[in-house]
Each structure stands twice: as structure tokens, then as C-alpha cells.
């Protein structure tokens, strides 16, 4: 019995779709901020802040640095959310 080719075409499309999805997931993973680097940044922030917290001449700098830190943390959380959404 001859196959009209639709079964083979469907199987090929399923494989291509699966390969495309795998490729997309790898691309998404490559866009993510490395979690180890993020933890290093957080640790460095806390170490640095502990050294300057008592220095009154750096009070304004300390406040700005904390603002940047909060923006980094918020950005990281948003990135995690977007990455999860993209992978879904």
C-alpha cells in the first residue's frame, strides 16, 4: 500500500519542530545571566558596603550604590520571570 507522503512529512515536521524548540531553549539559556556571577556580584556588594557604611564622607555614594544594587536585583528577578515564560 502506497503512502501519500503525509505521514513522512508530518514526522519530519515534528522532528524539525523539536529540533527548533531545543535550539531556542539553548539560545534562551545563553542569554541568561550566569547565576554564579550573580552570586559573586551580590557577595562583592555586601563586602564593599560593609567597608564603607561607617564612612560619613561616602554616605551619598553609599545611597546611590544601594539604588543601583536594588535595580540589579529587580532586573535579575525580571530576567528569571521572562526566561521562565520563554521556556514555557
Textual characterization of the structure:
The chain is built from three helices and no strands. It is mainly alpha-helical and 88 residues long. It folds into two domains: 1-31; 33-88. Helix 2 runs antiparallel to helix 3.
Sum this structure up briefly.
With 88 residues, the chain is mostly helical. It has helices at residues 6-31, 35-52, 59-87.
Helices and strands in order, then pairings?
Blueprint: H1 6-31, H2 35-52, H3 59-87
Helix pairs in contact: 2-3
Largest sheet: none
Number of domains: 2
Mean pLDDT: 81
The low-confidence runs, each spanning 5 or more residues with pLDDT under 50, are none
Question: Radius of gyration in whole Å, from Cα?
Answer: 24 Å
Beta-sheet strand percentage? under 5%
What's the helix count? 3
The counted number of beta strands is: 0
Question: What is the element string, with H for helices and E for strands?
Answer: HHH
Sum up the structure in keywords.
3 helices; 88 residues; mainly alpha; 0% strand
Amino acid at each position: 500500500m502506497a503512502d501519500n507522503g503525509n505521514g513522512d512529512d508530518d514526522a519530519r515536521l515534528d522532528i524539525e519542530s523539536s529540533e527548533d524548540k531545543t535550539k531556542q531553549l539553548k539560545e534562551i539559556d545563553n542569554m541568561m545571566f550566569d547565576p554564579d556571577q550573580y552570586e559573586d556580584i551580590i557577595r562583592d556588594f555586601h563586602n564593599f558596603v560593609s567597608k564603607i557604611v561607617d564612612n560619613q564622607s561616602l554616605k551619598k555614594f553609599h545611597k546611590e550604590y544601594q539604588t543601583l544594587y536594588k535595580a540589579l536585583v529587580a532586573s535579575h528577578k525580571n530576567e528569571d520571570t521572562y526566561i521562565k515564560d520563554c521556556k514555557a
